[in-house]
């Protein structure tokens, strides 16, 4: 590793929560890992053994430059390269809304990882609701793309996701609802713009 420490982006408070939940010396698989900042941070602060999966050429190169183990793969093809329970944590941070086969990817994550950590923007936030009522697709800090130039395919609310988790037989271990980097406790589906879950099947 290079000597320069990896700093988590200030605009990504979900990554701070994820880093706190990961135990030292764990085996971690980060799906849609971007430039590898989270994995490098976990290596430096938790001594984890990690791999990232990324499809974008430039981001894969950035991972290599960041001294992060990365595999260039398409998440939509599944995780058949990995054995059952081969990782302590499988992470999907702010990527769930951009995948086509949401249910199958979650099932694969639960197969490969002992625990799964997922974060995504909450479409039930009051500001998103107001914009829809005004006849426009929402644009915000957590949903920064305009409708014709967005990678997002399946937007969901906090309640939608928990309903899916119940269908999949998933136990939610922890949930953190955020807005502007601060925890939201009251009326979370209305007041939270970003949500992070830690889940397992046991």
Could you explain the architecture of this structure?
The chain has 7 helices and 8 strands. The chain has 202 residues and is of the alpha/beta class. It has one domain: 3-Layer(aba) Sandwich (Rossmann fold). Helix 3 links the parallel strand 2 and strand 3. The longest helix is centred in the middle third of the chain and has 11 residues, at 102-112. It starts with 12 loop residues before the first helix and ends with a strand.
Q: In CATH's first tier, which class applies?
A: Alpha Beta
CATH architecture: 3-Layer(aba) Sandwich
Query: Approximately what portion of the residues adopt beta-strand conformation?
Result: 15-25%
From the alpha carbons, calculate the radius of gyration and give it in angstroms: 16 Å
The helix count comes to 7
Q: Distance N terminus to C terminus?
A: 35 Å
Output the strand order for the largest sheet. Answer: 3-2-1-4-5-8-6-7
| Largest sheet: number of strands, sense, barrel closure | 8 strands, mixed
The third-level CATH topology is: Rossmann fold
- The assembly state of the depicted protein chains is single chain
Structural class: alpha/beta
Low-pLDDT parts are none
Number of strands: 8
CATH superfamily: Vaccinia Virus protein VP39
**Topology as a string of helices (H) and strands (E):** HEHEHEEHEHHEEHE
Overall mean pLDDT stands at 91
Q: What percent of the residues sit in helical stretches (DSSP H or I)? A: 25-40%
Number of domains: 1
Instruction: Give the overall shape, derived from the CA principal axes.
Output: globular
